[in-house]
Amino acid sequence: MDLDDILALATGHKPTVFERASAGRNTRWVQQQYARAKADGRDLVGDVDMHDPLSDDTGEIPGSPARRS
Fold first, then answer.
1. Which residues does 38 contact at the CB level (< 8 Å), separation at least 6?
2. Where do the segments described as Disordered lie (predicted)?
3. Distances (CA, A) of 38 to 4, 31, 44, 45
4. Distance between CA 39 and CA 48 in Å, rounded?
5. Over the range 7-39, which residues count as b (16 or more CB within 10 Å of their CB) and which as e?
6. Three-class SS of residue 38?
7. Over the stretch 8-66, which tens digit does the pLDDT of each residue have?
């Protein structure tokens, strides 16, 4: 199974009424928690590592077995 197969399966799935309701409740909860944290003055992204995972700098030693192809 490759990515195209997974995407085809995902587009063919129609959420049930229960799944939609659950997603709506979860979305509202996350939005409320976010608003509460911002109102409290907390920095929600201060400790997030903004490293680009697609960058060339992997932190590995050049020439190590993990990096050779």
1. 44
2. 40-69
3. 39, 11, 8, 11
4. 20
5. eeeeeeeeeeeeeeeeeeeeeeeeeeeeeeeee
6. helix
7. 988 888 899 999 999 999 999 999 999 999 999 998 888 777 777 777 766 666 665 55
pLDDT of residue 48: 79
> C-alpha 32: how far from its chain's center?
19
What is the pLDDT at residue 43?
A: 86
Judged by phi (left if over 0) then psi (alpha if -120 to 50, else beta), residue 26 lies in alpha
> What does the block give as tokens for 35?
């608003």
Contact indicator for 60, 67 with CB cutoff of 8 Å: yes
Nearest to 1 by CA among 53, 10, 14, 13: 10
CB 39 within 8 A of CB 32: no
